[in-house]
Amino acid sequence: MDPRDVRELLERVRSGDVTVESALEGLQELPFRDIGVAAVDHHRALRQGVPEIIFGQGKTPEQIIRIAEEILRTGQNVLVTRIEPEKAERITAGLPGFSYSSLARTGKVAHRPAPERLAGPVAVITAGTSDIPIAEEAVETLLAVGLQPDRVYDVGVAGLHRLLSRSEQLRRAAVVIVIAGMEGALPSVVGGLVAAPVIAVPTSVGYGAALGGFTALFSMLTSCASGVVVVNIDSGFGAAMAAHRMLLDRGQ
Amino acid sequence: MDPRDVRELLERVRSGDVTVESALEGLQELPFRDIGVAAVDHHRALRQGVPEIIFGQGKTPEQIIRIAEEILRTGQNVLVTRIEPEKAERITAGLPGFSYSSLARTGKVAHRPAPERLAGPVAVITAGTSDIPIAEEAVETLLAVGLQPDRVYDVGVAGLHRLLSRSEQLRRAAVVIVIAGMEGALPSVVGGLVAAPVIAVPTSVGYGAALGGFTALFSMLTSCASGVVVVNIDSGFGAAMAAHRMLLDRGQ
Amino acid sequence: MDPRDVRELLERVRSGDVTVESALEGLQELPFRDIGVAAVDHHRALRQGVPEIIFGQGKTPEQIIRIAEEILRTGQNVLVTRIEPEKAERITAGLPGFSYSSLARTGKVAHRPAPERLAGPVAVITAGTSDIPIAEEAVETLLAVGLQPDRVYDVGVAGLHRLLSRSEQLRRAAVVIVIAGMEGALPSVVGGLVAAPVIAVPTSVGYGAALGGFTALFSMLTSCASGVVVVNIDSGFGAAMAAHRMLLDRGQ
Amino acid sequence: MDPRDVRELLERVRSGDVTVESALEGLQELPFRDIGVAAVDHHRALRQGVPEIIFGQGKTPEQIIRIAEEILRTGQNVLVTRIEPEKAERITAGLPGFSYSSLARTGKVAHRPAPERLAGPVAVITAGTSDIPIAEEAVETLLAVGLQPDRVYDVGVAGLHRLLSRSEQLRRAAVVIVIAGMEGALPSVVGGLVAAPVIAVPTSVGYGAALGGFTALFSMLTSCASGVVVVNIDSGFGAAMAAHRMLLDRGQ
Amino acid sequence: MDPRDVRELLERVRSGDVTVESALEGLQELPFRDIGVAAVDHHRALRQGVPEIIFGQGKTPEQIIRIAEEILRTGQNVLVTRIEPEKAERITAGLPGFSYSSLARTGKVAHRPAPERLAGPVAVITAGTSDIPIAEEAVETLLAVGLQPDRVYDVGVAGLHRLLSRSEQLRRAAVVIVIAGMEGALPSVVGGLVAAPVIAVPTSVGYGAALGGFTALFSMLTSCASGVVVVNIDSGFGAAMAAHRMLLDRGQ
Amino acid sequence: MDPRDVRELLERVRSGDVTVESALEGLQELPFRDIGVAAVDHHRALRQGVPEIIFGQGKTPEQIIRIAEEILRTGQNVLVTRIEPEKAERITAGLPGFSYSSLARTGKVAHRPAPERLAGPVAVITAGTSDIPIAEEAVETLLAVGLQPDRVYDVGVAGLHRLLSRSEQLRRAAVVIVIAGMEGALPSVVGGLVAAPVIAVPTSVGYGAALGGFTALFSMLTSCASGVVVVNIDSGFGAAMAAHRMLLDRGQ
Amino acid sequence: MDPRDVRELLERVRSGDVTVESALEGLQELPFRDIGVAAVDHHRALRQGVPEIIFGQGKTPEQIIRIAEEILRTGQNVLVTRIEPEKAERITAGLPGFSYSSLARTGKVAHRPAPERLAGPVAVITAGTSDIPIAEEAVETLLAVGLQPDRVYDVGVAGLHRLLSRSEQLRRAAVVIVIAGMEGALPSVVGGLVAAPVIAVPTSVGYGAALGGFTALFSMLTSCASGVVVVNIDSGFGAAMAAHRMLLDRGQ
Amino acid sequence: MDPRDVRELLERVRSGDVTVESALEGLQELPFRDIGVAAVDHHRALRQGVPEIIFGQGKTPEQIIRIAEEILRTGQNVLVTRIEPEKAERITAGLPGFSYSSLARTGKVAHRPAPERLAGPVAVITAGTSDIPIAEEAVETLLAVGLQPDRVYDVGVAGLHRLLSRSEQLRRAAVVIVIAGMEGALPSVVGGLVAAPVIAVPTSVGYGAALGGFTALFSMLTSCASGVVVVNIDSGFGAAMAAHRMLLDRGQ
Q: What is the pTM of this model?
């Protein structure tokens, strides 16, 4: 309900078209609906082919199916993250059109194509092969919001030539997502090579002093490359959604 | 030096215009210069009125003056972060043109105006008044790279109406920097209100369970608003540089 | 045994009605019984329909049944917390009248109704759906001590309108229990909206920087809303018992 | 602005007393003011002689004086917490009527008496003498909101007789605030002795494994006495404000 | 080999009774044997009926049987700690005379009785019923070294009367072992009640802020009762061996 | 007041020698005095020349003098721990007979000699020279309670011969206090060399990974030598009081 | 490609032997290949019989077989670390020539012997028997790179004579790898006994305060023996590779 | 004293050249001296011009002077680490020949030149300028033990070209010491570029998530470059002594 609606309502109160009681009722919900405007704007954009996203961890297959069905009824696409293979099997059985990526541990039902966007590719870089599941979660999320992922996998800093040989790809990217576990050094090197936004994703890869991803997390937060930003451990989804925010006015 | 330059050099070697020795000399530096391309591109952009930035903490006034003089000789502006008042006094005495912001604890020498940029304003939001020094560090850095800060201070979530009454400002922003200590809840609320990129800056404000900023840091990393990104504790500078990356192709 | 009892005993010693030996015996236990008075008072209140509570975690079904049977023999109700479904099945088979809530993971045998109480409702609020099991543990405990829970679920701060649309319920509450994982921001917002006591319950919902509930815990302890109190991670039971203390003189 | 105001405004629009434009302007701020209702209610109560509270730590004497003057202009009392003696001296010099408690490190200007309240006394208990400054911060805050503190100091559990000899005082209390550093055992013992609400305040007293108050904090959160609630380390203020919430409908 | 032995050996070298070569051989091992004296003295004491102790965790049943057989061949008793029921079954099948305590998770083969000792009883106190397995590990170890355990279980500080009603037992003890999880408050209270050595054993009982036993550990290390000593989390064995050291000259 | 006293009081009530009122008064304090028995026994022992001990840290010189004067009035000795030199000077000026050890940072007023005790010496061992202040705190406390310290300083494990050359001293000790910072390895080696009780004291000596004493603390708690017990970081006082408990029935 | 190659290439361009296009192509890869030189040198050395190493943890048997087959095709040996028995069985079935060490949890296919090396033996020392799996991982890696391991197992510091009796072996070693869990004291003692490089490996052996290996890690980093270096928890492989670097110019 | 010495002593006892008493005296010290052999060998090497090293932190100038004088009397050189400027001034005044490096915070008295050594240079690399003091501590220690440092400063990974342009220096080094704070990424990159031993030194440079050096420490321990070893935070001295061990048989 924007100011024009309120004005119109007031005009109709003045003209007697609407009783005071009924106007009061309409205005009563105003505070929350008005605040809701932002959300609604946001949701409207999302509804244009962008899926609703369900965080699958800690939910039963039945719960996921039920939530997905509700969303699908509204005509939107659905993306589900963090679902293990056995859970995925049961969802597949119960939810028509559901397709699962075992690498990304995500699944989706896409009734219509993701929106066309003008933004350049989003480079998704990993330090090692063990970081790939997190990278694929980012990739699937990017695809779902209409962005174009560009994979650059297994280019950790201990073999610098692997990374440098891909520098063309890096420089082409509108946003760079850098995924690394263990010492998490890769975003610092990449941050020095590109001028685009760098979103660092620490992973829980490694043992002992890797602290389940916290060493990579802290490492990325103290990166000597300025302007690197960080998301939660193993959150490929979070990185993709951050890229989505950064490229929002470019094609969506 | 890009491939076309190398091709041209080789042509001139073949044609005898350039001797082998002199071509060798030119190529010798190639590996590093080529890698340097990104950096050079980046630096070139920066040289267009954007200051070089000196991290002042742990450096003596003499060291800061010496480094600043070197940069100024190349015609660039200089921004110095994290300098305490007493240190600033000594720099002011020794470095002509140096002006100091005691709130932001930053100083600068700006020989020429920052570059014109097309990007919208960058909202700089704080939860409390104690977060303002970090906010001002962000503001000074934004100004130095040619971006336009829009201050929204002291709008913590315990008094929600303060934040909501400023929602127009939030929605207008190209990027939103949210600065909060203690429980660090503000980015979650802001992330739900705007669709733009949200850069969260935890501060060391608070005591006991605030853990010197780590509670706010972890809080922001686990924000229930998707796509929020985070920088190091008290790093107003880092947040501004991240905004700079995000808005790089819009006016610079 | 209060001073009047001791005085009476002494009078009876003086008059010879009671021998020194038998008086000595009676007095011997005095220190502990006197201390026990508080406990006994407390227990007396509890016996008026309030169940004894068994912490089920780490106990075998056999142990739980045996303890429950002992309590039931004294005419009290029994509430058992933290019992997994498979354990609950075995208890159900062995303990007549036992009913189990799989959501709350609690079970009970209620021989008689909980006491009537005059206190207003206790709002039980959750940030997300994953926090509901902890909320239901609180609800079951509240019901067991005769308080009236008022559920407000899934109103996390990233979608502020969800919370604000329920503000009437919040303001009606005599005590508000706020349950949240991840960044634990909800109690700060609720604490700013209501004047009633706010009991914050951090949950272990979330991953990575959520630190298994410690980020929410520390966040709640440093809430910018003054007067918010906190209980242990995932302790819906603890929050309900705290509400019970706060409303003790209102109907029990 | 409550529903009656809106209804009245609408009536006046209908009758033509108020133009649509001017009504629109009044309604425009509605969302935030309406949300503000809770705060306003709360503030109204506070204005009845209850002081506004300034967190003094990290503020200059000049800032504190300026904020205090603004509050005093509205006729309210002012309480300032966490001010060191030297800072207090400068405030005393600049703020007429300011009186300072060096033990509590709080100061106040009380133009009118705190409100009369019906609630029983709030026991303020400390384990050792080093916890007294935190206790006095609680005491000063309780007095400021019109509650009656009842001091029970230096009754740590290693000399149980000290605590037990004061049990009469404990049982009389409407709320019990228990303040302890080191191992923080006192709330568990007190929680077993009284049925009233127990608010535990960990202090940073102790060294080594006391972890600057975190051992006491965690100890209190895992208390074997059920229904004990906890506030931040060294937060005597927080505990008093929690007591204020709990006793709000009893005399204010 | 003490100085008298060396002197005698040298005399025999001088007199020619022993060749230089053979004396050299004897002296060669001297450094280690001399150091070994302490160990040997110690071992000698232990061999007088005291079992060798095998830490069972992380060893296969086969390994445990093999090591036990070697020890038994030398005529000593054997105690095995930290063996789960299924592992115990396989050991029982393969090691004649092996008897297992499922509560203590220890097993033993005792060919001869433990030595007679003059020391008074060792009180083994627990805060809750969940601490009993650790207590029983201490009990079994005490019995194995010839000491007399005196169980005082489930006397946590939230119900002080339970502990105080057992104070006679506490005061009789030569050494007191106090076992508690969660907030670990019990040793502070016991340390104030008795003058004997108090050995505190933190247990991993509890959840959330109990930190897997570290809260109890730190709590016990900062006990306000002076002279309390602490062993590792869940180490009933360590506490019993400490008691053994303390009472060594009293009956062994 | 032990049972005989109560019986006698009752006899006197029966015979009329004591009125009921006056008996009631006497019994009124019974609960706490009876619990106090242990404490009183303990205090009685302490009064036999053993000083009361004041923890000096965080107390002003004036407070320390006042407390000391109160104790001295009862004829007891006084020991004050953790007082820095400047504070000690002011105490010396105000408290007649006060003598200060700058190494141990303790001071005392000893009106009469410490009690004679039969117990053997208590070895006080340090790994390095930086651990000596903590060792001297232990030494001063041992002397105050009538025990005989035997210093073995600077025998860290990196130069094993230093320790082994003192092994005679170690074996003679009734109790061994082992003080070490950094990696805290010394108690493990000493625990393997002696059969007496080993009390390990971690110190905050070291930097970086020494974690302010926590590495030594954890190291000592996980010592591979069985039966080693541990006190808080830097607590020479705590170790001496533990030795006092262990040797209590030997000469006091 | 070193400067001589570039010069030669340029000469051939000048002489027309090589076209500009083909020279360009060769130079194009220069930056990365030049950087690759180190790696290539390193790889060349490794190819002389030294195996490529696959980190087996987190990889499926199929992935390991596929990677191994690729390496074997190039004529190199393969070593796989961190493979559990059941995984090893499936690899053995699918990869001809694969032999598995269940103790070290490593497997290998060695087509040709490891290179001859001149370096002295590498002592591999453990504190306890539980550390042996990590030691064997080091041993297998040492053998794979052509170094000669010398096992010294179960010589923890609580029984010093065990270590001292093996001192001859220690002193003979070119490098000493010391492996210990729990308090991690062994490297300090060994570092004082030998002058050779000491590589400390903390293990996750122990419970409670052992912190899953972090106590041993921090202990080793703060060793009082100077010049001790440390690798990650449980990284027998890392220690062996460090020894390989240290002895690289001695026989390879 | 090695076996030949003992044999000779025994021969002389047999022949009567040496009395039993005097032989006994000589043998008495054997255990410790024999263990001391390693130390003595080591010390002998050190005495050949290598200084004894005093850890200056926590020692008074007077103590340092006294220890230094004792060492100098034996003809050895002295190196003192971790001395602040003001302390150094007082040592300079009291200790003839003492020269101080304010950058390295070390001082020395070198009566004679360090020994000639054959080992190649030791590269000392830093990520930033703030790491230089730690680097210089390493340099001074290397010089003191006769090794040749080769400085490569300020080559952090965010500007990769700086490091790569110095790769010739890196490859020439016999050992590489890599010093970095913040995210500690440099050793991973260097470890991939060189085959020599890499000793990583984390520094406490950085703030917030840098955790006072622990992020760099953990980062280095989990380096993706194999065979990198680590020393304590800020321990330039430790790294140099490790290099000394690695190069011991090459020129000393």
A: 0.86
Interface of F with D in 56-115 (CB under 8 A): 57-59
Q: Is the Cβ–Cβ distance between G175 and G122 less than 8 Å?
A: yes
Write out the two tokens for C95.
């303990």
Contacts of C108 (CB under 8 A, 6+ apart): C51, C77, C78, C79, C80, C98, C99, C140, C144
Taking CB atoms and an 8 Å limit, are D158 and E225 in contact across chains?
A: yes
CA gap B133, B83 in Å, rounded: 12
Among H194, H243, H200, which Cα is nearest to H219's?
Answer: H200
Low-confidence ranges of chain D (pLDDT < 70): 1-5, 25-50, 250-252
Pairing of the two strands E175-180 and E149-152: unpaired
CA–CA distance, F23 with F17 (Å, rounded to integer): 10
pLDDT digits (tens, 9 = 90+) for G113-162: 887 788 889 999 999 888 999 999 999 999 999 999 999 998 988 888 78
E20 within 8 A of H7, measured Cβ to Cβ: yes
E200 token code pair:
């505190």
Pick the more confident residue, D56 or F33: D56
Bridge partners (DSSP) of residue G151 are G124
Torsion angle of C-alpha atoms F235, F240, F244, F247, degrees rounded to 10: 120
Q: Which residue of B has its CA nearest to G23?
A: B10
Give the DSSP H or E segment for F201.
Answer: strand F198-202
DSSP A13-67: HHHTSS-HHHHHHHHHTHHHHHHHHHHHHHHHHHHTTPPEEEE-TT--HHHHHHH
Torsion of CA H41, H47, H51, H53, to 10 degrees: 40
Name the residue among D3, D23, D31 with its Cβ closest to that of A34.
D31
Residue D178: left if φ>0, alpha if ψ -120 to 50, beta else—which one? beta
Tokens of B172: 């207008």
| Distance between CA atoms of residues H137 and H149, nearest Å | 11
State the smallest CA–CA distance between residue H205 and chain B in angstroms.
9
> How open is the CA angle A170-A176-A178, to the nearest 5 degrees?
100
Residue D91's pLDDT is what?
96
- The band of F5, judged by pLDDT with boundaries at 50, 70 and 90, is low
User: Structural domains in chain E?
Assistant: 3-109 (no CATH), 122-249 (3.40.50.1970)
Beta bridge partners of B178: B125, B200
Do H and A touch (≥3 CB pairs < 8 Å)? yes
Written as one letter, the residue type at C161 is H
CB pairs under 8 A between D and F: 32
Residue with tokens 């960044």: C183
Residues of chain G in contact with residue F213, where contact means CB-CB under 8 angstroms, are none
- Touch between G and D (at least 3 CB pairs under 8 Å): no
Q: What is the pLDDT of residues F110-161, one digit of tens each?
A: 887 887 788 889 999 999 888 999 999 999 999 999 999 999 998 988 888 7
A58: left (phi over 0), alpha (psi -120 to 50) or beta: left
Alpha-carbon Rg for chain A in angstroms = 22
> Residues with Cβ < 8 Å from D10, sequence gap 6 or more?
A13, A20, A23, A24, A27, D23
| Single-letter amino acid, residue E144 | A
CB C76 within 8 A of CB C52: yes
Whether this model's ipTM surpasses 0.85 comes out as no
* B168: number of Cβ within 10 Å: 7
The Cα F239–Cα C11 span in angstroms is 51
Interface membership of H158 toward A (CB under 8 Å): yes
Distance CA D219, CA E181 (A): 10
**Hunting for tokens 């990027």 — which residue is that?**
B175
Measured between CA atoms, the residue of chain D closest to residue A17 is D14
The structure tokens listed for G34 are 């030049």
Classify residue B128 by its DSSP letter: S
